[in-house]
Amino acid sequence: MAIEHDYFGLLESGPDGSIFWSETVDFADQRVTVDLTAPDQDDVSQDALDVAAAMISSLEDIDIAARNAMISELDDRTSEVTEYLLQQQEAFGENLEDVLVDISGDVQIDIIRSLQLVSMTILADEHGGTDPFAVLEYALDADATDDVLLVHLTSDGTVQSVTSAD
Known about the structure:
Blueprint: E1 2-5, E2 9-12, E3 19-27, E4 30-38, H1 46-57, H2 59-72, H3 80-92, H4 96-99, H5 107-114, E5 116-123, E6 134-139, E7 149-153, E8 159-164
Parallel strand pairs: 4-5
Antiparallel strand pairs: 1-2, 3-4, 5-6, 6-7, 7-8
């Protein structure tokens, strides 16, 4: 079986009934991998696909909301965002300024501004549920796949949480 959608085209299911779509999109001066997945195509509605397409189209606004959510956690010294930023400062040491895109004097803000949006995974079967509908993956070094921050979004684009991959 398959699902057809204006944005995604024909989404064919695998032998186990799952669907998967992947594309690399240009965002600002970055290339972002966008994956849409669901373990069972029967759990994916046209509304879910419409929301997913809208999220991809409004990636800039979603990115701003995600970065603002990271900034809002800076007051909590035990937050995963704060811990991640401290790890990055320690890992890069004196070379940190080499990876920052802007140096304002506030190192934590500068790191958040410098994070690259590496990927967006859309869990199409979670539309309207309590689990994340989309997960954004950010890294200061795009090659360091273990050192990332994950921003979980609901299907209405609200940030649910920001966690590290550890």
